[in-house]
Amino acid sequence: MEELIQMIHRMILESLGLENHYDSHTKSLVNSMRFLKYYKDSSDNESSIALSSHQDSTFISIVCQHNVEGLEVQTLDGDEWIHATPIANSFTVLAGEAFMAWTNGRIRAPIHQVKLTEPIEKRYAVVFSTTPSFANDMINAPEELVDAQNPLLFKPFKYYDYVNVKEDYGSLKAYCGA
Q1: What contacts 42, CB < 8 A, 6 or more positions away?
Q2: Coil, strand or helix: which one is 149?
Q3: Any alpha helices (H) in the chain, and if so which ranges?
Q4: What is the pLDDT of residue 23?
Q5: Is the bond leading into 119 cis (omega within 30 degrees of zero)?
């Protein structure tokens, strides 16, 4: 899985013309894995939000859905939810707020949720994530991504400081928007 994570980071950095940042960027990251179990709300007969809408704070989250429906991603305009239909032998990759800030908004962190519908009563998922290491958690967009046409969107911030107060602010922009 670590190889896949590194490949995704490399592809994104190359697409942004930031190949020279690859080594320093990936060396400052740590990987984690979480096993998640979502339950259907028994008070709702038709469907249930098992995980409310949010943006991941990570750089990248890779979700193994185990062929069970439920993950939904909100469109950019916020008008609708798109089902992230699981495909056998595949993963769903979501960018997080750390990557959105580091790329000065070129990569978007999608708002997503988990919604269970009949007959699904519970859902399991495995999520692999990359976050900054504790020793190097300053998020600062590379100077190559900031110019007159692309002004700085997020002031530099310490990742774990943000994670600790994320719910108080409601969004990364409210916390450190430029």
Answers
A1: none
A2: coil
A3: 2-15, 22-27, 97-102, 159-169, 172-176
A4: 93
A5: yes
The 3-class secondary structure across 32-65, one letter per residue, is EEEEEEEECCCCCCCEEEEEEEECCCCCEEEEEC
- In order, the DSSP letters of 89-138 are T--EEEE-HHHHHHTTTSS----EEEEEETT--EEEEEEEEEEE-GGG-E
Ranges of residues in the chain with a pLDDT under 70 are 41-47
Cα torsion at 66, 26, 10, 93 (round to 10°)? 20
Residue 42 is predicted with a pLDDT of 64
Q: Residue 150: give its domain's CATH number.
A: 2.60.120.330
Percentage of the residues of the chain whose pLDDT score is greater than 70: 96
With a CB cutoff of 8 Å and minimum separation 6, the contacts of 168 are none
177 DSSP 8-state letter: B
Query: Taken in order 127, 128, 134, 139, is the CA torsion positive or negative?
Result: negative
- Here the tokens at position 59 are 């750089």
Q: Report residue 155 as tokens.
A: 């002031």
Tokens (6 digits) for 150: 């692309």
* Structural domain of 58: 2-176
In this structure, the number of other CB atoms found within 10 A of the CB of residue 135 comes to 7
Q: State the total domains in the chain.
A: 1
